[in-house]
Amino acid sequence: MEITKTNHRMKAPFLPPGPKGLPVVGSLFDYFRDILGFLTRVSADYGDIVYYKLGSRKMYLLNNPEDIKDVLVTNNRNFEKSRALKRTKIVLGEGLLTNEGEPHLKQRRTIQPVFHHQRIKSYGDVMAEYSSRIGENWQNGSVVNIHKEMMKLTLSIVSKTIFDSDMESESDEIGKSLTDLVTLFPQMIFPYSEYLDNLPLPANKRFFNAKSKLDSIIYKMIEERRANPGEKMDLLSMLLEAQDEEGNGQKMSDLQVRDEAMTLFLAGQESTANSLVWTWYLISQHPQVEKKVHDEIESALQDRLPTLDDLGKLSYTQNVFKEALRLYPPAWALARQVKEDYEVRGYTIPAGADIFISQYVVHRDPRLYREPDRFIPERWESEETKDLPRFAYFPFGGGTRRCIGEPFAWMEGIIIIAAIASKWKMRLVPHQSVVPEPLITIRPKYGMKMILERR
Predict the structure, then answer these.
(1) Residue pLDDT, tens place only, 258-284
(2) Which of 212, 328, 345, 403 is within CB 3.0–4.6 Å of 396 for a Cys-Cys bond?
(3) Using 50, 70 and 90 to split pLDDT, how confident is the model at 198?
């Protein structure tokens, strides 16, 4: 699509193409009625750069991988977190996800050793054991909500690896608190929602009660680790020991550790659980893929639980997970606010405007992928994907803000798939409505009911 250069002689700003929307509210109603559908439609209709308004916010949707690279990598210092992500500080504080600029880079370097390969590989056994354990409670022919089951499983894993605690007695309450945070959060980032924070609304009460419950658990764990240093080697203990090697060598305060632990807790449970739900859904709809997964697992594992050393033998299973992340990326979109006027394809994006980037849209771009809406794990074995631009596939973000826990997430996803698929098949309950709902991650709006079949 050829785009005309900006005409600086025009009195009014020369805007990229996009939906006109309504007076005052712009495309606000269309957007929130069906976020993924709206982004997909306007990208197909208007091309690499799309302009639309959400209330008073000026939004510029970028769909070309080269332009995305320029924002996230080449010129990343000209951008800061969007208003929506700044609002996540209500829950995550000044954690790695929300911090910016030099403090963010310094923080990332301090925390990076926590995710060193040698540090996290021991967690592979935990992932396999807990995956096997959840299957022991399933019955052949029974119907389960696999979304609820995966949330329970990843909660168990994240509790053990971050806090070295089973938390079984509190799992229902923790799961409810996490669900409340995730499902209510869109209301907290709705335009002008900050003016409603202190009102005694039922949604506000549930949201802040959920946050308070999780805070109390994390601070209790921090207190126990401070009192008994060196006893455990979970991620929380590593955070408490992490030092600022480039500054004064100090360790993190309780508040800093809380912010990082909350970020890891929420991201580690929510992202992986939903990625796995969509993986099971896609496998259940493609019997030929399911057979290849089962054949590979049988050959690689010989009827035992997977370990980190087995990942190299599970290349097709990895491609299945990779393709599921393409269609339903855990981070379905990201946004940046422009600091200084920024040129893209002949258009000037003014300071203060928001740049929006959607992995969900880019991952389904027909210019980048053959049959982009189809689930084809084999595409990752072919020449089709060998020369993809860097930001044609970025389920965990990119640049200096790329998810620090990405290696952990890949390991967890593949090990869980292998451990469960070695014992079970899943069949989608007929006639149920499968609708992706973009919250913090993409959840199945009505859950995902599956019929279990023992292998």
Answers:
(1) 888 888 777 778 889 999 999 999 999
(2) 403
(3) confident
| SS3 assignment for the chain | CCCCCCCCCCCCCCCCCCCCCECCCECHHHHHHCHHHHHHHHHHHHCCEEEEEECCEEEEEECCHHHHHHHHHHCHHHEEECHHHHHCHHHHCCCCCCCCHHHHHHHHHHHHHHHCHHHHCCHHHHHHHHHHHHHHCCCCCCEEEHHHHHHHHHHHHHHHHHHCCCCHHHHHHHHHHHHHHHHHHHHHHCCCHHHHCCCCCHHHHHHHHHHHHHHHHHHHHHHHHHHCCCCCCCHHHHHHHCECCCCCCCECCHHHHHHHHHHHHHHHHHHHHHHHHHHHHHHHCCHHHHHHHHHHHHHHHCCCCCCHHHHHHCHHHHHHHHHHHHHCCCCCCEEEEECCCEEECCEEECCCCEEEECHHHHCCCCCCCCCCCCCCHHHHHCHHHCCCCHHHCCCCCCHHHCCCCHHHHHHHHHHHHHHHHCCEEEEECCCCCCCEEECCCEEECCCCEEEEEEC
Query: Do 8 and 43 touch, CB atoms closer than 8 A?
Result: no
| b/e per residue 125-164 (b: at least 16 CB within 10 A) | ebbbebbbebbeebeeeeebbbbbbbbbbbbbbbbbbbbb
Domain containing 158: what range? 28-454
Which two tokens mark 239? 């955070």
Packing angle between helix 202-227 and helix 171-189, nearest 10 degrees?
130
Are 411 and 308 within 8 A, CB to CB? yes
Report yes or no: 319 and 381 within 8 Å, Cβ to Cβ.
yes
Q: Which of 325, 282, 352 is nearest to 412 (CA)?
A: 325
Query: How crowded is residue 200: how many other Cβ atoms within 10 Å of its Cβ?
Result: 6
In a domain, residue 226? The reply is yes
- pTM score, whole prediction: 0.87
The stretch 116-126 carries a mean pLDDT of 75
Tens-digit pLDDT profile for residues 150-181: 999 998 888 888 777 776 667 677 778 877 77
In 3D space, the residue among 193, 117, 121 whose CA is nearest the CA of residue 161 turns out to be 121
Reading phi first (left if > 0) and then psi (alpha if -120 to 50, else beta), residue 225 is in alpha
Domain of 168: which CATH number?
1.10.630.10
Give how many domains the chain has, as a whole number: 1
- Answer whether 46's CB lies under 8 Å from 14's CB: no
Residue 118 corresponds to which amino acid? Q
How many whole angstroms separate alpha carbon 334 and alpha carbon 395? 11
The one-letter code for the residue type at 343 is E
